[in-house]
Automatic annotation (TrEMBL):
<feature type="transmembrane region" description="Helical">
    <location>
        <begin position="53"/>
        <end position="78"/>
    </location>
</feature>
<keyword id="KW-1003">Cell membrane</keyword>
<dbReference type="GO" id="GO:0005886">
    <property type="term" value="C:plasma membrane"/>
</dbReference>
<dbReference type="InterPro" id="IPR005524">
    <property type="entry name" value="DUF318"/>
</dbReference>
<feature type="transmembrane region" description="Helical">
    <location>
        <begin position="210"/>
        <end position="229"/>
    </location>
</feature>
<keyword id="KW-0472">Membrane</keyword>
<dbReference type="InterPro" id="IPR053166">
    <property type="entry name" value="UPF0718_permease"/>
</dbReference>
<feature type="transmembrane region" description="Helical">
    <location>
        <begin position="269"/>
        <end position="286"/>
    </location>
</feature>
<protein>
    <submittedName>
        <fullName>Permease</fullName>
    </submittedName>
</protein>
<dbReference type="Pfam" id="PF03773">
    <property type="entry name" value="ArsP_1"/>
</dbReference>
<keyword id="KW-1133">Transmembrane helix</keyword>
<feature type="transmembrane region" description="Helical">
    <location>
        <begin position="118"/>
        <end position="136"/>
    </location>
</feature>
<feature type="transmembrane region" description="Helical">
    <location>
        <begin position="90"/>
        <end position="112"/>
    </location>
</feature>
<feature type="transmembrane region" description="Helical">
    <location>
        <begin position="306"/>
        <end position="326"/>
    </location>
</feature>
<comment type="similarity">
    <text>Belongs to the UPF0718 family.</text>
</comment>
<feature type="transmembrane region" description="Helical">
    <location>
        <begin position="12"/>
        <end position="33"/>
    </location>
</feature>
<feature type="transmembrane region" description="Helical">
    <location>
        <begin position="241"/>
        <end position="257"/>
    </location>
</feature>
Length: 327
């Protein structure tokens, strides 16, 4: 029995891990090249001026249009922050990308009908905007790790090392071309080769920072699938009592419900007597703040930031559950 569960856990880990690694690598490279080739000054100026409801709307809208899982949304969010976007714009993206992208809404529409899909879309979309205007503008915005500073620090050390070697040869003191080119290596400007190298260096730094958390998330996913029985869900949230909704949202966190497996599970639980409110709470909690997702988010958010994100998603799950309970 244990061997069978371990086999299931390893199979899920392998299935999730290699997909996450490939996605993270691709998105990191894309982010690096976007950072190099898109005029950053205009983009940063536009983003920095969006610490308003417009910025929160833009972040939520971007998430709705991009069916990202946690593995791909984190490097994109990091790129947004590095380009100067306020956290009040990034947070709505982090919430709407997994919860109300067009794929999720389409699956809900095909399973539960247009009314449920429309209410779900409006609730999660508005909730993401409200989160950006409240949590995103609070002191939580200071809980974001700054990858740019890490990368710049590494580049600075590399540049100082290079310049130090040149000084040993008295090149810098003589003002030679070699010293100038060396000390300016890795700085802005340069030709195509320099830009490509800079983009790949940034992508590598981004990949190295995120991928360990993705592996942790894959481990959690495998353990959850193998050792958390679905009977627990059926036992404690298979009814229409008020406590089923907050309990369902909390149970969804360790379950790691990918949308393609969440909907079949919810259909089964609804047939067995689970209330629609608890089903929605489980869906939002499991897809918006699962343990693997929180593990990956830890690569860009400090512990208090991860906690604030989790509580925000759980609040959205619980309030959405009660909404569906009474309509």
């Amino acid at each position: 029995m244990i061997d069978e569960k371990l086999s299931i856990a390893f199979g899920e880990f392998w299935h999730v891990a290699w997909v996450l690694v490939v996605i993270i690598a691709g998105i990191s490279i894309l982010t690096g090249f976007v950072r190099e080739y898109i005029p950053q000054e205009k983009f940063q100026k536009k983003l920095k001026n969006q610490n308003t409801i417009v910025g929160a709307f833009m972040g939520a809208a971007l998430g709705t249009l991009t069916p990202f899982c946690s593995a791909s949304m984190v490097p994109v969010a990091m790129g947004m922050i590095e380009m100067g976007a306020p956290f009040s714009t990034v947070l709505p993206f982090l919430i709407s990308a997994p919860l109300c992208n067009f794929v999720v809404v389409g699956i809900i529409f095909g399973t539960f009908g247009w009314k449920v899909a429309l209410i779900y879309l409006v609730w999660t979309f508005v909730g993401a905007i409200i989160a950006g205007l409240t949590v995103g503008r609070s002191r939580v915005k200071n809980q974001v790790k700054n990858l740019a500073e890490i990368a710049e620090s590494k580049n600075k050390k590399s540049s100082e090392s290079c310049c130090g070697e040149v000084k040993k040869e008295s090149a810098c003191s003589e003002g030679t071309t070699a010293a100038t080119s060396c000390c300016q290596a890795g700085s802005a400007g340069g030709g195509t080769r320099e830009k490509v190298e800079s983009a790949l260096n940034f992508a590598l730094a981004l990949f190295k920072q995120i991928v360990p958390y993705a592996i942790i998330g894959a481990v959690i996913s495998g353990v959850a699938l193998a050792f958390i029985p679905s009977s627990i869900v059926e036992k404690y949230v298979g009814n229409d009592s008020w406590y089923a909704i907050p309990l369902a949202s909390a149970i969804g966190v360790p379950l790691y419900l990918r949308i393609e497996m969440a909907i079949p599970l919810l259909r089964t639980l609804l047939v067995k007597g689970m209330g629609m409110g608890a089903a929605v709470a489980l869906l939002i909690g499991g897809t918006g703040a699962s343990l693997p997702e929180l593990a990956i988010l830890s690569s860009m958010l400090k512990p208090k930031g991860v906690l604030a994100f989790t509580l925000t998603v759980l609040a959205l799950a619980i309030s959405g559950g009660f909404l569906f309970m009474f309509i």
